[in-house]
Specification:
heterodimer, A: about 425 residues, alpha/beta, Amidase signature (AS) enzymes, two-stranded antiparallel ribbon, 14 helices, B: about 90 residues, mainly alpha, flat
């Protein structure tokens, strides 16, 4: 079998068994590189691989190549976050998640294409993993988009509990929802990547202190999963059949199923758009052409003119629109009519999940839910993002569980992915 | 409306962008309406934030060269920024 067809876990096993080398693994993937990537880190990845082959690293995944969405800042590689505004920028510091990957000896193959500031349906990282250009990748998931794209590309995305993986060095879009998220072709690989990055970080004040344990081999039998029993209007027959197949797998594995309805989720999408635009507008204030972003200096311009011209030239239209909408939502009057009510809806969503989790261990819905365009859009994962829950998108099923139950999400995901059609 | 907010947000719009956003703005705001129970508290962060502090010691230092590496302009080891006072 060609090296790129293996799972990350199998690549690591072959490396340990001496059946391949890290250099061979990196080169095999570099040979498949495509326009999914905006920067290919060939020389450095091969140099790290050679160090792995020389025995420098002892981590299980050392030598297995990884790709980063271009919203994670990296030393020695450009970070543009999909924006012309950051074209050519090389950060003088590195994201904690990236530093941990490097410390474990994972060669970084490339930075992958993203929508501007990660806000959109475009993801070169998902493409690359689906097309065997990398065994796994690290992306950002803000309001479920990375999990939704996972469904469309046939890969597994597992958003951690909010704060489980440091956001330091992730170009911030919506700080209260952004998560650094592993994606892979199967659950085991996503879990292995997650474990390299997880853990508190003094550079991220929202990172959580928790004694993570991913070693459980416990069966899911005896647990209870909340499910939908009626096909929602926004789920196609095909997506519903895939979902039901996943639920049968869980039942076959001994999980009890019980119907769960979440009334507050009807307003979750609007709340997420409001909070999202507001936080986005505040986060992007630092892109002023002074601290971050390419500078445009009008003749005889004041500092305010420099900022306005730089932001005008640097941001794309959708980013400008989101910032202007967000600025409006935080203005006197609108903050009371829109923003604070959205934050209260967020509380209602969290309360409803907490109530549900008194009777179920996790909740599974069809992952393919998506309706509406732009500011009227929704997806299966928005509620979990608002509530900070760990959540997986796997084989057409979206699974979420209480905060800190990331390990349970992985165990359920591993059962679901055994359905026909799940990615190899 | 759009012009005022764009000015607040310090964003220059081209004429095309201004026209497009003027047409799109009200429908977006109209779509973003929620009705919440007034009695509920607001949620700012999904998990409790515990004011995580680190020891007050110098760490993760950038060298002067690193700090200036991406600066559009620098002089004498310092950032060059636009004047904020006339003639200064």
């Amino acid at each position: 079998m060609h090296l790129t067809q293996l799972t990350a876990t199998d690549m690591a096993a072959k490396l340990r068994a001496g059946e391949t080398t890290a250099v061979e693994l990196v080169q095999a993937h570099l040979d498949e590189a495509s326009t999914a990537f905006v920067f290919i880190n060939a020389d450095e990845a091969l140099a790290v691989a050679a160090e792995v082959d020389a025995g420098k690293y002892d981590h299980t995944l050392a030598g297995v190549p990884v790709v980063l969405a271009d919203v994670l800042v990296t030393e020695n590689m450009p970070t543009a976050a999909g924006s012309a505004y950051l074209d050519g920028w090389v950060a003088p510091y590195e994201a904690t998640a990236v530093a941990r990957l490097r410390a474990a000896g994972l060669p970084i193959l490339a930075k992958a294409r993203v929508a501007e500031f990660g806000m959109g349906q475009e993801s070169g990282a998902h493409e690359a993993v689906a097309n065997h250009q990398a065994p796994f990748a690290v992306v950002s998931d803000t309001a479920g988009t990375a999990r939704h794209i996972a469904t469309e590309t046939g890969v597994v995305a597992v958003k951690p509990t909010y704060g489980a993986i440091s956001r330091f060095g992730l170009v911030a879009a919506v700080s209260s929802m952004d998560t650094v998220t592993p994606i892979a072709r199967n659950t085991a690989d996503a879990k292995a990547l997650h474990q390299v990055m997880v853990g508190a970080d003094e550079l991220d004040p929202t990172s959580v202190e928790y004694d993570w344990d991913f070693s459980s081999e416990a069966a899911v039998a005896g647990g209870t999963i909340g499910v939908l029993t009626e096909q929602p209007a926004d789920v196609t027959d095909e997506a519903w059949a895939t979902y039901q197949a996943g639920m049968e797998k869980l039942q076959d594995a001994g999980m009890n199923t019980t119907e769960v309805t979440m009334d507050t989720l009807g307003q979750a999408a609007q709340a997420a758009h409001i909070i999202g635009a507001a936080e986005f507008s505040a986060n992007l204030a630092k892109f002023d052409g002074i601290r971050f972003g390419n500078r445009v200096t009008p003749d005889n311009g004041t500092v305010q003119d420099v900022i306005t011209a730089s932001r005008g030239a640097g941001f794309g239209y959708e980013t400008k629109r989101r910032i202007i909408v967000g600025t409006h939502l935080l203005s006197a009057g609108t903050i009371d009519s829109h923003f604070y009510p959205a934050q209260k809806i967020r509380t209602a969503v969290i309360n409803e999940y907490n109530t549900a989790f008194k009777s179920v261990d996790a909740i599974a819905v069809p992952a393919g839910i998506q309706q509406g365009e732009e500011y009227e859009s929704t997806n299966a994962g928005i509620g979990a993002s608002l509530a900070g829950l760990p959540a997986a998108s796997v084989a057409g099923v979206h699974i979420c569980a209480p905060t800190y139950a990331d390990e349970l999400v992985y165990r359920i995901s591993a059962v679901v992915e055994t359905t026909a059609g799940a990615a190899a | 409306m759009v012009d005022n907010i764009a000015a607040t947000a310090h964003i220059a719009l081209t004429e095309d962008e201004r026209q497009r956003l003027t047409a799109e703005f009200d429908p977006i705001i109209d779509a973003l309406v929620v009705t919440a129970d007034e009695q509920l508290p607001v949620t700012v962060n999904p998990l409790p934030v515990n004011n995580k502090l680190r020891a007050d010691v110098v760490a993760n230092e950038l060298s002067n060269e690193q700090a200036l590496s991406a600066a559009p302009e620098s002089q004498d080891g310092q950032f060059m920024v636009p004047a904020i006072l006339d003639g200064e």
